[in-house]
Amino acid sequence: MKKIINKIGYAGSLLCLLALASCTKELNQQPITSKSLGNFLNTETEVEEYINAVYGTLQSNGLYGLYLPAIGEIPSDNTFDEVPANDGGMYGQLDQFTTVASNGMLSDFWKNSYQGIQRANTVLNRVDGISYSVSANKQARKGEMHFIRALLYFNLVRVFGDVPLVTKETSNPNEFFGQGRSSKDLIYTQITTDLASAIQELPVNTNTPGKAIKTAAQSLLGKVYLTLGKFSESKAVLADVVASGKHQLLNDPADIFALNNKNNNEIIFAVQFASGLNGNSEGSSAYQQFSPSGSISGAKGHNLPTKSFYQLYSAGDKRKTAYVGLTSAGTPFSIKLKASTTTPVDGGSNFVVLRYADVLLMLAETENELGNAQNAKNALNLVRKRAGLVDITLQSQTEIRAAIMLERRLELIGEGDRWFDLLRTNTAVPVMNAWFASQNITTRIADRDLLQPIPQDQIDTDPSIKQNP
């Protein structure tokens, strides 16, 4: 087929929606021992500790620790799974479009997403009643929770379609049994509402790396509007990001993902990881898992760039060596993720969720769809110039559209965007079937393959949640 940190614990551990999921490692936590959630979150200090737990959810394997980047790439023509049988076939099923409802990756993605949503709900439902020494800090925390809740629902709705919508705190998941799945339209309404609130609440700057700021909410809202085909709305909010002057393209693409340059001016929002802390347990295992088999200890060959993708880079494209490496056997792999300085499972690379190059490419897309060819080329050529490429001089909307989509592939490889780009442009079926044919692969897909199956353990828990076709 397609070739720092302490743990939070409290007696009344919060259950994520419809999933008996335990708490995972958290970033920048103060230890909490033997505290019931019912008697917790009464002071500013406790709220700040718990908000770190919300951010900590993003580090989980089900989300940006491991699985979400694979879900956003492997079904596409960008990457493949080298040994489909590894890890119980979780990744191989994505690669071969044979994913079953018992796939552990999807189960963890669902559970971790709703765990984060429920934690954000808890903060949003309680924080107004808690005294803060600086009122602006309380407002910022509300913005952070609105942003994270929107991000998690955006991921869920793109992967599964209709999903349960829960926006209030509950200590009893049984309260939501029987409600089934809410429509995509309702989910997207909640996402845009949350992001509109976040834009008003979040600060322009932060002294804490990894915290969401205003441009993060604007950038995500621009991507949501683009997904919905609302090009004018997307253009307006993305233009605000550009006008803010907060972010810029780095001169050398190799500097964007350097371990000594994390959270640089191109990065808008990234999930934070670090090596060598808390017994080497707070890094990411993505570098190990996404390295070719046999290249390092424990490498699994998941989510490797295809050779056909690698061949899309022209000889003078700086990203060819800045973003992708080759083994001695000629197998491509992402070098946006860096090797650990301690053990293979303790990588220190942050996972970049939003960055300025993506904003410029989205802005180019909105301008092109609105018929503004020159504006589209101007934004696109900024990204190309940084890569060492000449400006495009194409004229037709169709040609410019294809050039933008190609540039997104070359620029954003490994960042979990390609499959979602194919979905939102309604090109997944023809693009993938043409790619399979070009590689002499017999697989063919149809519309029924565009959503992942709802995890079986969720349906077993609540039969009102119906399976996708």
What do you see in this structure?
- The protein is mainly α.
- It is 44% helix and 4% strand.
- It has a two-stranded antiparallel ribbon.
Provide key terms for this protein.
single chain; 469 residues; two-stranded antiparallel ribbon; globular; disordered N terminus
Helical proportion, percent range = 40-55%
Biggest sheet, strands in spatial order? 1-3
Oligomer: single chain
Question: Main β-sheet: number of strands, strand sense, barrel status?
Answer: 2 strands, antiparallel
Number of E strands = 6
Net shape: globular
Number of helical segments with 4 or more residues = 18
Taking pLDDT < 50 over at least 5 consecutive residues as the criterion, the unreliable ranges are: 1-35
What is the N-to-C succession of helices and strands?
HHHEHHHHHHEHEHHEEEHHHHHH
Structural class: mainly alpha
> What portion of residues belong to β-strands?
under 5%
Report how far apart the termini are: 24 Å
Mean of all residue-level pLDDT scores: 90
Return Rg in Å.
Answer: 21 Å
Give a summary of the structure in a few sentences.
The chain has 469 residues and is mostly helical.
How are the elements arranged and paired?
Elements: H1 44-57, H2 61-65, H3 67-71, E1 79-80, H4 90-96, H5 104-126, H6 135-160, H7 184-201, H8 214-227, H9 231-244, E2 267-271, H10 286-289, E3 304-305, H11 307-310, H12 319-322, E4 324-326, E5 332-334, E6 351-355, H13 356-369, H14 373-386, H15 397-412, H16 418-424, H17 428-438, H18 456-461
Antiparallel strand pairs: 1-3, 2-6, 4-5
Helix pairs in contact: 1-5, 5-6, 6-7, 6-8, 7-8, 8-9, 9-13, 13-14, 13-15, 14-15
